[in-house]
Amino acid sequence: MPIAATVPLLAENRYNYGLELRGYQIKAIRAIEAALATEQRELLLAMATGTGKTKTCITLVYRLLKTKRFRRILFLVDRTSLGEQATNAFKDSRMENLQTFADIFELKELDDTTPNSDTKVQIATVQGMVKRILYPSDETAVLTADQYDCIVVDECHRGYLPDRELSEVELTFRDFNDYVSKYRRVLEQFDAVKIGLTATPALHTTQIFGDPVFTYSYREAVIDGWLIDHEPPIQITTALSEDGIQWQPGEEMEFFDPQTGKLDLIHAPDEVRVEVEQFNKRVVTQEFNRVICEELARHIDPSIPELGKTLIFCATDAHADIVVDQLKQALREQYGEIDDDAVAKITGKVDRPLQLIRQFRNEVNPKIAVTVDLLTTGIDVPSICNLVFIRRVNSRILYEQMLGRATRRCDEIGKEVFRVFDAVNLYEAIAPVSTMRPLVVNPNISFTKLLEELDTITEPAAVDTIVDQLLAKIQRKRRHLSEDAQAELEAIAGTDISAIVSQLAQSDSTQVQAWFRQRRAIAEILDRQDGGTQPLLISYHADELRRVERGYGVAESSSRYGRPEDYLDSFKTFLQQNQNQIAALMVVTQRPRDLTRQQLKELRSLLDRAGYSEKALQVAWRDAKNEDIAASIIGFIRQAALGDPLVSYGERVDRAINKLLASQPWTVPQRKWLERIGKQLKVETIVDQNALDKGEFKTQGGGFERLNKVFNGQLAGILGEISDRLWGNAG
């Protein structure tokens, strides 16, 4: 059916499905449909982890099929586990007349790769499609260009950030560019509209799908109450993490060779120093992990259900083994006996990892999962309340995906916040990394491959990234070259090896490109050392806890650790500097009853971007004053700007409503509705006419117009009076 014929049908189609869509989800669908109406063929939808991309996508696909905009849709994922989740979602989602999506439209699952004439949605993995398109067997059915007229790609940001443990058996990808090249081949095989879904758009994602037609960020979802905020990260600093691990010249060093399984002893030729970002990758340090696990045990008691579940990110599978053992020991020392299965390693090297993931999601134990990359994306465990980083990552995309594991609400355990424990200074180190960098700086990528990229890539920022990687790799490699390789390299370079990096670092990207084009043989020399698994240093250096502190981000572009008093002072200074420039701040301090819902949302967003979220202010107040007060952002503003007493917001609401109830003889219906308004105030902060025209106020009370009659036409004034009582001194 032509686009012109389907657009009115889409616009007229209502959203009264059994899925009960949220407002932003409807906006997302409308944005996609509007882009389709302009004949756009590559579209990107960016929605934060936990905001219901799958539900949004199922509704979108249902509408597109129902109006005959498309006849057959390929739903593409990059892991079997995500394909299984998608299949279950399509089967369980009730659309109309109590029928599920799968009842209405025929669905083909991962195992059934050949659609028939009635198939409307085919679920497949990228790897499976690559195998069928690029490496077909005699039994493989030919995939024609018109096989699908729409392709929806879930988690389309992933590129070459796959979890090694969950990589598909059908095909392995050589590197990032190899993945993206084959990924593009799959998409280009079909004459189809491409729709990408992601929480974290990457550079290669926007190059394929374009800029997002709709974005709903994590911070927006937190402000709107759909996702959970995290407290400022708890930074755990030890002597070794701060000073590094050092061997003095002549000191005995122990190496473990993973290829031979042997331990070798050598003497340090000069001073050797390993920084925290290489802990548990280049050097095995039991002491560092012991100190971290002992501190974690103080904060995490697996016997308390309200503390939720914990996810720990380690550097390697072997590191995960160490952490499991150390943490079990620390928990037993802290609390006595614990269930042995309360702490479990969940990586690709354990038996039945998918079964363990299901247990982590659905059963009491394990309460603490120790992983590497296995649970970074696509896994939904709402009860995760604690994230622990004992590994560094260089990709903000991967970091935000890791944070996304804990952002979902879990009302069953009263989850209001999640905690981040940072043992490797990741929170601060990740700040300068661009959100659009597509790739973790991969130490295993070859020099030859980097030089090939340097020849083909023209975008300046990408060229700079490759040059940075080349220089960093040369710095690492030059310490491990044999005398013969070093002499050979210096002969080609025409200079001493120690001068190469400094010389290139002072050159611009164009000069570096030209220099390497004339000396391509250097790549072969440097790649000779890439063959085996790097031996691991074994450290027996003692370690001790130095400090545990919060990381308060005081501005959008910075994140630092400091005293909570300093953070609260900086908030006060920010208000003083901006009070007369920001209209909503003036309303909060001078006329709080006039504050609108839109003004409050804009104010929350502005303060959030400046580094002052409600949750961070609550934690800073608790740490500074030893008072745990769940005050609202309005309360913090009025306390800092006017010196108002800081009172729990729930307590403020109760006082305001109780004083109002005691002010005159209300009828029984009036009292009941005032009590309900009080409950709603605790949820929404502002209850106005719009709030009374939805939810139970609409369904049970008939909305503002009818409730106004209950209050004899005085409801608007009563709402204003509640606000006055709410923000008077202590309520």
Describe the structure.
- This protein is globular.
- It folds into five domains: 3-223, P-loop containing nucleotide triphosphate hydrolases (Rossmann fold, 3-Layer(aba) Sandwich), CATH 3.40.50.300; 228-436 and 536-561, P-loop containing nucleotide triphosphate hydrolases (Rossmann fold, 3-Layer(aba) Sandwich), CATH 3.40.50.300; 447-531, no CATH class; 563-646, no CATH class; 650-726, no CATH class.
- Strand 3 (94-96) and strand 4 form a beta hairpin.
- It contains 31 helices and 23 strands.
- Helices cover 45% and strands 15% of the residues.
- Strands 17-18-16-19-20-10-22-23 form an eight-stranded mixed beta sheet. It has a seven-stranded parallel beta sheet with strand order 5-6-2-7-8-1-9, sandwiched between helices. Strands 13-12-21-15 form a four-stranded mixed beta sheet.
- The longest helix has 19 residues, at 317-335.
- The protein is of the alpha/beta class and 731 residues long.
Question: Tags for this entry?
Answer:
single chain, 731 residues, alpha/beta, Rossmann fold, 5 domains, 8-stranded mixed β-sheet, 7-stranded parallel β-sheet, globular, disordered N terminus
**Assigned CATH superfamily of the largest domain:** P-loop containing nucleotide triphosphate hydrolases
The overall strand count is 23
**Most strands sheet:** 8 strands, mixed
Number of domains: 5
Low-confidence stretches: 1-5, 159-172, 434-443, 554-561
In short:
This protein is an alpha/beta fold.
SSE arrangement:
Elements: H1 3-12, H2 23-37, E1 42-47, H3 53-66, E2 73-77, H4 80-92, E3 94-96, E4 99-100, H5 101-104, E5 106-108, E6 119-125, H6 126-134, E7 150-153, H7 176-189, E8 193-198, H8 203-209, E9 214-216, H9 218-223, E10 234-238, H10 239-243, E11 245-247, E12 252-257, E13 262-267, E14 272-274, E15 283-285, H11 286-299, E16 309-313, H12 317-335, E17 343-345, H13 353-362, E18 368-371, E19 384-389, H14 396-403, E20 419-422, H15 426-429, H16 447-456, H17 460-478, H18 483-493, H19 497-505, H20 509-517, H21 521-527, E21 536-539, E22 545-555, E23 558-561, H22 564-578, H23 583-590, H24 597-609, H25 614-625, H26 633-642, H27 649-661, H28 668-684, H29 695-699, H30 703-710, H31 715-726
Parallel strand pairs: 1-8, 1-9, 2-6, 2-7, 5-6, 7-8, 10-20, 15-21, 16-18, 16-19, 17-18, 19-20
Antiparallel strand pairs: 3-4, 10-22, 11-14, 12-13, 12-21, 22-23
